[in-house]
Amino acid sequence: MKTIMKAFLWSLPFLFSATAADVPAELGKDTGTARWKMVPGAEWLQDGTLKVKADRSGRSLVSCSPDVRKFAGKFVRVSAQVKAEKVSVGKRPNHGVKVMVSRNSNGMGELWKASANRLWGSFDWNTQEVCLLVPEDVSDFRIHLGLENATGTAWFRRIAIRELEGDLYPAPVPLAAGFRCEYTDTVTRLPLLRGVCVLGSRMTPEAIRTLGEWRCNALRWWIEDRSKCANMKEYWPWVEQELARLDALMPELRKAGIGGILTVTVPGGRYCDPIDPKQAESVDLNPGLGNEYRTCFSDRFNREYQKLYRMLGKRYAHNPVIIGYDLMNEPTHGGGVKYDYLKSQYLAALALRETDPEKPVFISCNEMGPPSAFTYLKPVPVRNVIYQVHMYVPGAFTHQLNPKAAVFKSYPGMIGGKNYDKEELRRSLEPVLKFQKKYGAVIYAGEYSAIRWAPGGDRYLADVTELFDELKWHTTYHAFREWSGWSLEHSDDPSDNNPVAEETKRARVIRNYFKANTRFDGTPSSAPGKR
Fold first, then answer.
1. From CA 519, how far away is CA 197, in angstroms rounded?
2. Percentage above 90 pLDDT, the chain
3. Cis peptide before 267 (omega within 30 of 0)
């Protein structure tokens, strides 16, 4: 599940080159002190137009690092008028003329976002724009203009950055003034869930018994096969096969006092997932940001997505082992999509409520689920919705994915220019806490972890779990017997890929955390009580 995070975690140096007041609405050659880094073939013309000519295919991108601190916590629109001549057709849809923004923060990791794909050939002036959030803890913000893996010439003028008017991610339906989340006893009588994430295809009776001995009371049961999710002829038989596997393990789960939070690969998958062109519509073949879900753009896949949860509700509404339904794992996209991350989940929740009116629905925030994305998350008027965050702050510590790195960052300590300790972790969770208090929401930390070889990983896990208990959040650790990098049963030695017999320090932290658990013995079949 976390391999898709890699693209978010490269580190870039940030050069603040101007005070916040210096950032102009339009960025030309000599605007303020936000200087442009030029490349061969790039020049500023007398009329203030930027010209970029590439005779060889490669990365011919001019960049600028304006200080965007005055926009912290706000959405911005980065725009430019663009013209092109004889730009070669790229091998990939994202090759060609680029109006692109890269953004980095300790809380949200790195994001690269381009205005459009297939910008090649010759075309006259038109406006390209990128809309995105400037995180409160932004550490790098760069505008990139030029050509990528293409030859030809492009011109750019009226380059601008402005605060976005309106809402990039509006609520799917209007909310009443003073809206508060509604919960019945099905949610309010849940024991505090402290569990782990698992791949359903790897679970066995022995694994479930082990987790029962650990006093785990919840599994985030992940059903995933990225090779099948965009082929509906294969998808539905595969889903049935995986659900049959889960059903066969229900007696073991019930015996162990463990409930399941069910999450299934979204129909259509992400744009980086394979799709048969013969079965695809044009909207299915545009990779955009590779991690975006096709269902957010496609009518066809969005209907399949709703069908999935209508079916799951019918199947599990009265099943005492299933806690609820996690609708979408780590959604991410920019603005302007037909079914944004929240609208898609809202429609799926409505479809689910046709067949299961009570069991909890878990809705995820955008941008892969970090705490800072709660800044703009809105609640939805569906009862028993639990809101999900994934806690990997700071990502530069938790996701040190290269086991052969010469030096590893340690916790607590200076990470990404900030001194991280328990209180700094608490501050990183503030957007979620504000949402929780404002709307009376129940919160679920669906994933939290630290790569096993990160020095101080046990201390990090102790601090975050203490915070979770203090805030009374449901949680599932990522992950149990999924990938050795997250494994509690593997040592801190990155070169040792075999489980160890002795209990690791990280496992001891999590097992101690689970000691406070109450068994999960089923959700109430009817729950008239509300709060």
1. 17
2. 73
3. no
The pairing of beta strand 194-199 with beta strand 218-223: parallel
CA distance 529 to 512: 33
pLDDT of residue 109: 62
Q: What length does the chain have?
A: 531
- Gyration radius of the chain over CA positions: 24
On the 0-12 / 13-18 / 19+ scale of CB atoms within 10 A, 433 is middle
Residue 17 has pLDDT above 50, yes or no: no
List for the chain the helix, strand, coil content (%; round to 5).
30, 25, 45
Q: Is the peptide bond before 80 cis (omega within 30 degrees of 0)?
A: no
Q: How far apart are CA 116 and CA 289, in angstroms?
A: 10
Say if CB 296 and CB 330 are below 8 A apart: no
How far, in whole angstroms, is CA 226 from its chain's centroid? 16
pLDDT digits (tens, 9 = 90+) for 72-125: 878 888 999 999 999 999 887 789 999 999 988 755 667 778 888 789 999 999
Give this prediction's pTM: 0.84
Q: What is the pLDDT of residues 183-238, one digit of tens each?
A: 999 999 999 999 999 999 999 999 999 999 999 999 999 999 999 999 999 999 99
Asked if 207 contacts 214 with a C-beta cutoff of 8 angstroms, the reply is: no
Q: How many CB atoms within 10 Å of residue 358?
A: 21
> Mean pLDDT score of the chain, rounded to an integer?
90
> For residue 282, what pLDDT band results from cuts at 50, 70 and 90?
confident
What are the tens digits of pLDDT across the range 158-187? 999 998 877 788 899 999 999 999 999 999
Long-range CB contacts (within 8 A, 24+) of 425-429: 425/393, 425/463, 425/464, 425/467, 426/467, 428/106, 428/107, 428/137, 428/371, 428/372, 428/393, 428/394, 429/371, 429/389, 429/391, 429/393, 429/467, 429/471
Asked if residues 121 and 150 have their Cβ atoms less than 8 Å apart, the reply is no
CA distances from 455 to 400, 407, 411, 481 (A): 10, 10, 6, 21
Q: How far apart are the C-alpha atoms of 288 and 273, rounded to whole Å?
A: 12
- Those residues with Cβ within 8 angstroms of residue 58's Cβ, 6 or more apart along the chain or in another chain: 149
Phi then psi dihedrals of residue 71, to 5 deg: -95, 5
CA angle 307, 308, 312 (to 5 degrees): 115
Among 484, 485, 480, smallest CA distance to 510 is for: 480
- CB neighbours of 46 closer than 8 A, spacing ≥ 6? none
In order of 123, 293, 347, the CA distances from 271 in angstroms are 27, 6, 21
Q: Is the CB of residue 389 less than 8 Å from the CB of residue 445?
A: yes
Nearest alpha-carbon partner for 347 in 292, 404, 305, 393: 305
What integer is the mean pLDDT of 447-459?
98
Tokens of 464: 């975050």
